Amino acid sequence: MEYSGNQVKDINIAYIGGGSKGWAWALMGDLAMESDLSGTVKLYDLNYEAAHVNSMIGNSLNRRDDVKGKWQYQSVETLEKALTGADFVIISILPGTFKEMTSDVNLPQEYGIYQSVGDTTGPGGIVRALRTIPMYVEMAEAIKAYCPDAWVINYTNPMTLCTRTLTEIFPEIKVMGCCHEIFGAQKLLASMLKDLKGIEDVGYRDITVNVLGINHFTWIDEASYQGTDLMPIYREFVDRYYESGYEEKPGQWMNSFFSSACRVQFDLFRRYGLLAASGDRHLAEFMPRAWYLKDPETVKSWKFSLTPIDFRMKRQEELAHKSKRLAAGQESVQLKPSGEEGICMMKALLGLGDFVTNVNVPNQGQIKGLPLGSVVETNALLVRDGVKPVLAGQLPLDIENLVARHVLNQETVLKAALRKDKSLAFRAFLNDPLVSIDIGAAEQLFERMLQNTKAYLPGWDV
Amino acid sequence: MEYSGNQVKDINIAYIGGGSKGWAWALMGDLAMESDLSGTVKLYDLNYEAAHVNSMIGNSLNRRDDVKGKWQYQSVETLEKALTGADFVIISILPGTFKEMTSDVNLPQEYGIYQSVGDTTGPGGIVRALRTIPMYVEMAEAIKAYCPDAWVINYTNPMTLCTRTLTEIFPEIKVMGCCHEIFGAQKLLASMLKDLKGIEDVGYRDITVNVLGINHFTWIDEASYQGTDLMPIYREFVDRYYESGYEEKPGQWMNSFFSSACRVQFDLFRRYGLLAASGDRHLAEFMPRAWYLKDPETVKSWKFSLTPIDFRMKRQEELAHKSKRLAAGQESVQLKPSGEEGICMMKALLGLGDFVTNVNVPNQGQIKGLPLGSVVETNALLVRDGVKPVLAGQLPLDIENLVARHVLNQETVLKAALRKDKSLAFRAFLNDPLVSIDIGAAEQLFERMLQNTKAYLPGWDV
Amino acid sequence: MEYSGNQVKDINIAYIGGGSKGWAWALMGDLAMESDLSGTVKLYDLNYEAAHVNSMIGNSLNRRDDVKGKWQYQSVETLEKALTGADFVIISILPGTFKEMTSDVNLPQEYGIYQSVGDTTGPGGIVRALRTIPMYVEMAEAIKAYCPDAWVINYTNPMTLCTRTLTEIFPEIKVMGCCHEIFGAQKLLASMLKDLKGIEDVGYRDITVNVLGINHFTWIDEASYQGTDLMPIYREFVDRYYESGYEEKPGQWMNSFFSSACRVQFDLFRRYGLLAASGDRHLAEFMPRAWYLKDPETVKSWKFSLTPIDFRMKRQEELAHKSKRLAAGQESVQLKPSGEEGICMMKALLGLGDFVTNVNVPNQGQIKGLPLGSVVETNALLVRDGVKPVLAGQLPLDIENLVARHVLNQETVLKAALRKDKSLAFRAFLNDPLVSIDIGAAEQLFERMLQNTKAYLPGWDV
Amino acid sequence: MEYSGNQVKDINIAYIGGGSKGWAWALMGDLAMESDLSGTVKLYDLNYEAAHVNSMIGNSLNRRDDVKGKWQYQSVETLEKALTGADFVIISILPGTFKEMTSDVNLPQEYGIYQSVGDTTGPGGIVRALRTIPMYVEMAEAIKAYCPDAWVINYTNPMTLCTRTLTEIFPEIKVMGCCHEIFGAQKLLASMLKDLKGIEDVGYRDITVNVLGINHFTWIDEASYQGTDLMPIYREFVDRYYESGYEEKPGQWMNSFFSSACRVQFDLFRRYGLLAASGDRHLAEFMPRAWYLKDPETVKSWKFSLTPIDFRMKRQEELAHKSKRLAAGQESVQLKPSGEEGICMMKALLGLGDFVTNVNVPNQGQIKGLPLGSVVETNALLVRDGVKPVLAGQLPLDIENLVARHVLNQETVLKAALRKDKSLAFRAFLNDPLVSIDIGAAEQLFERMLQNTKAYLPGWDV
């Protein structure tokens, strides 16, 4: 890397999952809009062809006048090539294919277990983790071997266990898991200020929050805008919109599988007194099955959706078409902020401005009451070459209990995956709040799900 | 107190719940058989008359030739009188009456929640705790005022929360909760040695175990007899008796509401790999409802019983008759060891011999992974005026998760009881593994249960 | 308080020690230059007259055109009046008088113990603490009674023990201790950049540091400016200036009792590898007596000074004259930044902009390896109504040992002061690295020092 | 191993340092007097010849009628041979020779540093540790390779660092460090009971104590005999004998380099209020130089001695003669208890009876306030295949500070030895309370001491 004033050149980024559609383009767009950084992005993907197409798309940007940040994109055939010399490693992969994801999400439905996402917790999240952990073991070892000083930013779900696997295998790794769900909560609070107080143009960055918990099950216990404590206003907001739910564009949840009307969040606030800072689709999956995901009617009554894998597949197909058009120059990458903060984070780590945001890193005491070493989500201060968690305090006992159950379950899943211990994995599976079915049925479901993902479980006796 | 060699005279014991039938007589018997101790027992009970009758029964022992330990029994009208000057305080009360216990156990059945005991966890255990905590707050304050240096031994259930309330209100209190369930596991291991290895006459004290967990949900991860590791033998034992269950007298579980065939214990061993050191009736209540307590048929298939309150009431009536006969001299207290270790413990605390046994005291690090300050059960070294927990290590992650959920729930119940916070209490109630029913139904059940126990909830808004 | 946009009116500040010369005027100046805040400052001082004069000086500012922030100054007779209604409490007092300080600093010299400051550690710091703690007990109780929600900013030395006393007596207090010594280290690093790299105009705020330790004995293990790691450059800097020392204006240390040539800091870096982030006069006092303070010649050779109390008294006299002139309008308060960050901190706490700086607060895990609850110095994130320490990591073992010794000694001093336990206080005294003299001599010295400060030790048996 | 009732045959013991004179014979004697155990002892020593002579001495015991425990002794040439198949490993070596010990003890005297023992702390203890740690690294690796399940009992000094090195290199090792110093304190208390209360025949095992600290700097905060609290009696005892000192045989300290009159212990009790449970010769070395070891006169005034290495050498010579006579059958091993508890410990670990005694093992929470993982000394419960520390509580702050300083210094020495980091080692050296001399002199002393021990510092740059 080479610094000149506030600009840094010759940055090397390794992008694992660099053949992705959507995520890769978002990064390209963000990099293109940032004038202070430039360098090379090495795209690595199990699907080399996809990475190669993306390299063409990425390089085509350099010819555009509206592009401020110039980057070279290279597709590479091996992890080693991607990682060697890397200053940053971005990991954003799909663990397995939609075939496995279909099993993760649909099979449990046969047993009465409905999942709105299926990638973080619940039977789907757990089996996805079992499949993903060996991949992350490999990455951790490769990073240790080829770029031990690089900063690693993980975007893949299950966020906690992906990040946690890296720190387990290579404890000195410089890593953080990044997720935009908290920004959603901040944006909601900004909307609330407009809706209830008539305050316009509040950006989500203007909302200061204290967050604590684990990814997709993070809680806000303090929120403010300038001198105003937002918690009492949020209470008012919940009271007003508890029944109807709240959306910027009312009814949107019915048209988008990714939207919700925040009714789950509102209900959790009424019950527990803190703001659960994630989308309803994620939150619902962490609670007992009977609460929000009992059956499709219940889900509908809470005004959110079960995201069908069909839909994801169809979207993927559209993206494949778009990819071809982009590569062929028939369409061009749109330059609009992705809503991720990856670039800001890289800038802070490069020394171009300290920055506070939420990250997923091992608990070194930033959350009291949760096990040290487990990956948790809180604010952190990002400085040159450093991510320093901000002390977030402790969750109220009753919420801590809900969260701790998942934390210990996740640690159990990690241990089971590393030991290839099916029995231990099943005990974790059985202890998930969504798996409150008969043990016999649970055993059958687990067995079938493992069978469907067995290609990704090397060394397992399944 | 006055020492002379290994004998101690003029010991003062305050017995709270001193009108009890059964427990009080057991203590009288144990004291009568111990030649090294003598003094005065002050019997205090909300039912003064019962305490008075017991004092007559107790004093009648002194006239018997086979009684080695001579004690004066006095019934007293107030806690102050009982506690003033006490060296030891024994607490063994029934919190409320069988009327409330009927509600604790039977009402949940209307909602499909079956409880085999209903005094420790589950809806019954939680509501019983809410009712009991205010009584223990009063006792803690009285002990602080009248005998802050006395050693307090608690026998009342819910053991953990009774003991925990005392330490919350008067942190310097010298207290331990004592329970014989672990001895049951040690006796089972002795039986096993006879059954599988033909080794006779092994006493339960000859079996060394490492215990860790919370009362009635304690786990043994190491067990030995002389040079023999008992864990592999226990595995063999479980394999042999998994289906049939094991009892000293086969079929006894059908004739006694307090017996079981250890099938739940065996099943937990198969699943988790450690020996759950409590009776099946208790163990079942800590696990998800669908496992062992789904319905009466399931219970029967696991070869244990739901203890009916009717039966407890009937037994109480019989004891009332026996009480009259004892007081009238028509019958006399039988001198046989009660199976409790209270006297041994007192002797150790008096300096008459160091002693290792299991106790319930606040976690000062004896169990890694569970919150400091919560009451846990492990071995401790008892010395003159001291109870020093032995480091028990850490539970495997998957079991720790099961136990931690109850620990945090119990701490939540304590907080709710002290704050008289119904909403918080309900959150704990809802998070109990047995309460996996619809929220609406749970709310109704909780409300009804509180109504039935409301006389014991001073200051609550119910 | 009343918010309007980014401006806050009607703020109430209680200033304890409000009759001070110098500190009070600095605050007045800083407030006057800040256009976003206004309100009332209540000046409380044991010397009411001094507070009253200061109120006149403060109010005179409002008539000036160059004053942007308008504040009313009131002198009040009681703590209660000062604190009632306060949003902020600023504490900046002289504990005792220069008479006691003379004893603190000069008496030990008779025993061969030289102190460059004598207000933080060493015999002087310890006796000063014993004298100050009862005053802070009183303040803590008053704050609890009259303004429990106010934010308290302490500037008085001994910083650690003043702050720590407040948290001991009123654990829920919102307090931080603030000290500018770290800024000095940041300024030195800025100078270094100019000196070695020719980079001009770097402000101390542009230097990002990670700090950990205790007040006046804080260590920097990471420092950067934009993308540059400053630690290797600092090593170069130390190598160049190790012998000569470094000063912006060479030789200044000979003309100012408050200056030094950083030779102690450089020597500590050579030995321990981290940057000790305080002035040499403070650092020297934390190390063994023979290192930097053996005798006046040794002190001179390290290019710093023993600050004579005579000098402080003389300066105080000059300030008294200046006070008169200011009150009489013959001179006016100069509007230049004081170098303290108090106003920035208040703004952050009011919600006018999050802010990271170093503070002294109880250790909640921000420094691993030092006792929880003891007051430590690290960075913190200041937000609306919150001070959230940033995790600073752990000191290397050998430095941790140096710091821990002082931390435990300080905790011992606190305990001794609260219990009025002379023997315990002496044990702490004896364990200070500067007190490596014969025990008999130490006893005599301690006794004489206590006698001299006895008026401030109510209830002690001295 | 083969069990038959309470007897165990075919036990394999590896004795490292098996050529030792004195220690090896003591073990032989203890084993010979124990009828329940038998098997083989493999003697390994850098001096093979010495081990071989000892094997002859050991085997000669089997022909005697008064020997109850029959053991085969074999001298072996390699660690591998000694350890393979071992059930127990006993380590009792002299690290280096008396030549190095002469340097450890005598060289510091040239700089005014007097050491009464020189094997645990102080300049001698630190340099001895640097020399010993590489040997223990080798042993740890060999134990891991050849007998990972064996129980290791260390007797070598510096006890803490020898044991700690083993746990650092092979964390799963089953090890405890054993030392008889605490028994000395218990014996003193028994003598006290006779002297002050006329109670005869109290054995040291009848005195129950709570111990906490580090080896040779352990503190007793509770002591009792039957129902009696011994602490108030000890206070009386100290008052009576403070000036004169106390010895069973008055004046013995003048005739034996290993005796003392407990005046240091008494003085520490007067100052700190707890009983320092080690001989004065050890205790003095942990305190500041000026207290008890200022010069030979001071030492004499405290009624203990500086043990000259000449004396040790002479004794060694005598033992060499005795060795020859024993091997030649001209003299025979005396069967009297050695005063060590090694055999009792082995029996407990074999399952022949649970047992509570003091051990040196890593801190897992048994002492609050000292770092986890550092080796500390407290009571432990020894069971079949297990050593379970008993929670000992926390030292008072002022004593904790004294102890923590040594703990952190020892950890620093370990780190320095493993990294071969001379500068770090020197920082630890300099921070020892005995090394309160000029830095320049300290540097020279350290350099000279290292030179003298350099043959044992492979890979160091010295």
From TrEMBL, chains A, B, C, D:
Matching Pfam families:
Glyco_hydro_4 (PF02056), Glyco_hydro_4C (PF11975)
Q: Which cofactor does it need?
A: Mn(2+); NAD(+)
Outline the extent of the Glycosyl hydrolase family 4 C-terminal domain.
Answer: 211-435
Q: Which superkingdom is the protein from?
A: Bacteria
Q: Where are the transmembrane segments?
A: none
On cofactor binding, the record's note says:
Binds 1 NAD(+) per subunit.
Q: Which InterPro entries would you find in this protein's record?
A: GH4_Enzyme_sf, Glyco_hydro_4, Glyco_hydro_4_C, Lactate_DH/Glyco_Ohase_4_C, NAD(P)-bd_dom_sf
Q: Which UniProt keywords apply?
A: Carbohydrate metabolism, Glycosidase, Hydrolase, Manganese, Metal-binding, NAD
Which family does the entry's similarity section mention? Belongs to the glycosyl hydrolase 4 family.
This one is known as Alpha-glucosidase/alpha-galactosidase
Native species of this protein?
Paenibacillus gyeongsangnamensis
